[in-house]
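User: My advisor asked me to double-check a structure prediction for Ionotropic glutamate receptor C-terminal domain-containing protein before group meeting. I don't want to rely on an old file, so could you generate it fresh from this sequence?
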Amino acid sequence: MVWILTDTVTDLLDTVNTSVIHSMEGALGIKNYHYDNTTLYQTFLTQFRQNFNSDYPEEGYTDEPGFYALRAYDSIAIITQAMDRLSRSTSSPKVFLDNILATSVVGLSGEINVTAGEMLRSPMLRIVNVVGRRYTKLDFWIPELGFSNQPLVEKVEAENSTDARRLKGMVIWPGDLQRIPKGWLMPTVKKPMIIGVPGRTSFDMFVNVSTNADGTKKYDGFCIELFLKVRGVLGYDLPYKFVPVNGTYDDLVDLVYNKTYDAIVGDVTILASRSDKVEFTQPYAESGLSIIVPEKPEESELMFMKPFTKGMWLATGVILIYTMFIVWFLEHHTNPEFKGPWKKQMGTAMWFTFSSLYFAHKEKIYSNLTKVALVVWFFVVLILNSSYTASLTSMLTAQRQQPNVNDIEWLKTKRLTVGCDGDSFVRNYMQSVLGFEPENIKNVSHEYKYEEEFESGNISAAFLELPYQKVFISHHCKRYNATTPTNRFGGLGFVFQKGSPIAADVSKAILRLSEDGELRDLEVKWLSASRECPSNATNNDITGSLSLQSFWGIYTITGATSTICFLLFLVQLLKNYNKQEVKGRRNATPVDKSVWEKTFTLARYIHHGETDIPGESPISAPSPDIYNLESSKWELSIPEDTQENLHSSSPAEIQLAANISDSDVG
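Assistant: Sure, here is a fresh prediction for Ionotropic glutamate receptor C-terminal domain-containing protein from the sequence you gave:
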């Protein structure tokens, strides 16, 4: 609300109590202007202040006389001048009146002419703004010229100036309002709010206008139901009348701008260019530009490799080879299945390790250290098998597809035809901002036409705003894909005329519905996904390959366990080697060996488990007793060459050899 004061009130602002002026803060007024820089006015002002403050001390100090005081002074001056012009011999009232009517003077209140018994003056008005306990002087208003910041302006200069129609001074509005207030008539039952509704839309779920059997219009859709809920929480009655409008969305905005309609209820995108013309409410849906493209299956001969990343495959291969080496080293001394020529040993070790991936190994394990290392390795194998199977299954059974186009630049380079809603701003945006040629853009009138255009090959991609993209993909998730919007807009909102107080109330109501969850319920009701396309099916994220970051912990554990077992076995071998070397020195003549010979002997012992002691037969590393789980008996580990000799020996010789071996082990 704004107070506009006439000159009847503003001319008294110099004389009223300051507390009264303070209650009118923010009011604008029209005040008669008078020249206050003339000698006549300054002389009068000095005498007026002295006499007024002397005669009326209870009124307080008066800064300036009011305009009515100046006009009274000028009236008395005119009468005095008329009386002075009367001669002593002439005292006729008619002559006295003629002298008054012939007066033309410039008084304290301005230029004065008396014609036909009336006091005429050329009015010059001053726009004032009540601020605090005083008022500030703004611009001048000169009849037939308009606003000016100077009291005297040439007529030609004023007519050539476009600023003469606008107030240039800074105005303090009531309540410290930051924008120019406007008076607004609220809708009534007799004069309801005329609301335009998009008569043709690409997606009926947002706005759908149909005709009933009796010829009346039926309005339905997400936007319509949202407006009805907003109307219910406004706190006051809002009479309205829907009117369908067949045109583009820019046409709808222009119809509100030229005041043909009071508002627009529909899926109108908030844009900066439109905000210059109309008032938008709080957006009820986010908006951005997405690309819809047909999907094609991802075909690859190396699909079986994709569950793991390259780094994961490399790490798995390294830990597999390392485990193979540990198993061979721990077993080839005592386990006959790991003995023999190099090829046989490596083949057996590789077969054992690789078959352990499927738990299909058949070789018997003799060393307890090997068993410890394999327990941890089997646990790793179990995790790897489960993870690989789950990842590969997901890639093969889930929607594993990719777009058949790359990006906007690729579309423009290939000069492919794309589709969009011709009634929206998208077509102009694609031409002016994205740089598409007009002949490469095809208008698609309805959501069901997009599928036809794709199947016929008329378009290679479609550009849709984010709300429409979600609806389209939710019904066609198995055949089409959508990119993440990179170009964002203000969202979808309702449209009102500039300065409409109803727009702010509707925005507050939309926020309240959003906070209460009712807006979300409307989205579920109108924009939810179909049964064939659950909500998670519209997500374009593809299951990623498993990386080493997820498995480095168990790889470290199995590597450390194998290393510890290797070191423990190596320490045991070195102890046995020292014992046999000391025993050999006692039984043979000491022979000095070079460092190289000692190193070679130690390496041969570590590898073969035997060493040559001077004067003695080669001594093998003791083979541990082996407990046969099937027969519940202890067995001896006998080398292969010894086994061949046993086949040609008599039973007595075999028993003697067994007794000798048993005494050595003991």
